[in-house]
Amino acid sequence: MGMKAAPFLLLFCAASAWAQPPRAADEFQTSSGVVKITPIHHASLMLQGGGVVIHVDPFHEGDYTGLPSADLVLITHDHFDHMDAKALALVRTSKTVVMAPAAVAASINGVTVLANGDSRDFGAWKIEAVPAYNLVRGPAAGQLFHPKGRGNGYVLTYCGKRFYFSGDTEGVPEMQALKNIDVAYVCMNLPYTMPPEEAAAAVRAFKPRVVIPYHYRNSDLSVFQKALDGSGIDVRIRDFYR
User: Fold this and answer.
1) Alpha helices in 19-77 (DSSP H)
2) Which pLDDT value is given to residue 23?
3) What is the four-CA torsion angle of 121, 158, 58, 140, rounded to 10 degrees?
4) Neighbours of 210 (CB within 10 A)
5) Total Cβ atoms within 10 A of residue 43
6) Kind of pairing, strands 210-214 and 183-187?
7) Considering only CA atoms, which of 67, 117, 70, 126 is closest in space to residue 98?
8) Is 197 exposed, middle or buried (0-12, 13-18, 19+ CB in 10 A)?
């Protein structure tokens, strides 16, 4: 019976493998090898470099099937599509380090708190927390969706390459003042962050070598691309909503 079942099992396993196509990822060369960045969903993505796996804003609407567990998790702020305990459990182990602002640490145990302006080393990686906030947009007069100081964007530096993940923000002065960013993942969606035109204006100010929109649900990315025509910035569109 077992002998007869073996070919079927082999076929089933092969079919299962075929059902999981390779995930699209970008690879960036550094002085110590490649950093690979894989889009997952919305503001969620995974970095791999130097033997380290970093998950950013894991969110359960993404597909984590077959993805490695995190050595480090970065959470930008405490909104449900960024601070998601269900998704965190999918990638966290007993050895995973979680870094996040204080608003996240109030709800999730075992968090290393990073405030705006703080930095930490994690192996060969340097993690810098930068401000992410609204300037004008909010749910009501006198309120903001993301108040200043509550959430982080992150700049990650590895072997000479600098990667920026905006978190939820408008084109704040701290974003526009960033220097020497090689790759920037920049949010855009209304009403919570900013429209593509404003995102493009902020990107023109700090001039990353590569920019990739994320957290862009229902935004017209062609507007963002067109606004950066002639800037010399490499605009790459990736599917965060498969």
Assistant:
1) none
2) 79
3) 80
4) 16
5) 28
6) parallel
7) 70
8) middle
CA angle, 17 as apex, 49 and 25 as ends, to 5°? Answer: 30
Per-residue pLDDT at 13 exceeds 50: no
What was the pLDDT predicted at 242?
Answer: 82
CATH numbers and ranges of domains, the chain: 24-235 (3.60.15.10)
Residue 98 amino acid letter: V
Query: Is-contact 89 114, C-beta < 8 A?
Result: no
Whole-model pTM over 0.85 = yes
Going 60 to 119 to 232 to 54, the CA torsion angle's sign is negative
- Residue-wise pLDDT for 119-153, tens only, equals 999 999 999 999 999 999 999 999 999 999 999 99
More confident residue, 217 or 18: 217
Decide if 186 contacts 210 (C-beta within 8 A).
no
User: Which whole-number Å values give the CA distances from 53 to 47, 126, 176, 213, in the listed order?
Assistant: 6, 14, 28, 21
What letter represents residue 147's amino acid?
Answer: P
